[in-house]
Design a protein that fits this description.
Layout (H helix, E strand, L loop, with lengths): L1 H19 L12 H12 L2 H6 L3 E2 L3 H13 L5 E8 L5 E8 L5 E10 L5 E2 L12
Antiparallel strand pairs: 1-5, 2-3, 3-4
């Protein structure tokens, strides 16, 4: 029970912290493999990584689709939160909502998607990734 509670707290917190991280004026930009590897290494050698134990997370295509649907419904969405949930027959799902600029759930558009595991890295990591080796 403690592990489940810890994971259900860590994921939303990790997603929120990533959404609040300063990113400058860039939404996204391409980077080389060497820059990506260096940035990953910088994070993994930081106090933040040591304290959280989280190196990343996997976002499933259905979750991304749900995030895009939320963003289309509410263009002012600044980030997303995925809650762990179970449907009426006990299947693991994610509940996807958008966040306001102050980190609050915006419940105008709520989606549910399938979820395969914790999606946290570890344990859901690519052990052979050229970005982490």
């Amino acid at each position: 029970m403690t592990i489940l509670l810890t994971i259900s707290t860590i994921v939303p917190t990790a997603l929120l912290m990533m959404s609040l991280a300063p990113a400058g004026d860039e939404k996204s930009r391409p980077v080389s493999q060497s820059e990506a590897r260096a940035n990953i290494s910088n994070y993994r050698n930081s106090n933040e990584a040591a304290e959280s134990g989280i190196n990343g997370l996997r976002i499933e295509s259905g979750q991304l689709e749900a995030m895009n649907n939320v963003a289309r419904t509410n263009p002012n969405t600044s980030a997303f939160r995925l809650y762990y949930a179970k449907d009426s027959v006990g299947t693991a799902v994610s509940i996807v909502v958008g966040l306001t600029d102050d980190g609050q759930d915006n419940t105008e558009a709520i989606y549910t998607t399938a979820r395969n595991g914790s999606n946290l890295c570890p344990p859901v990591c690519d052990a052979n990734s050229p970005l982490t080796n």
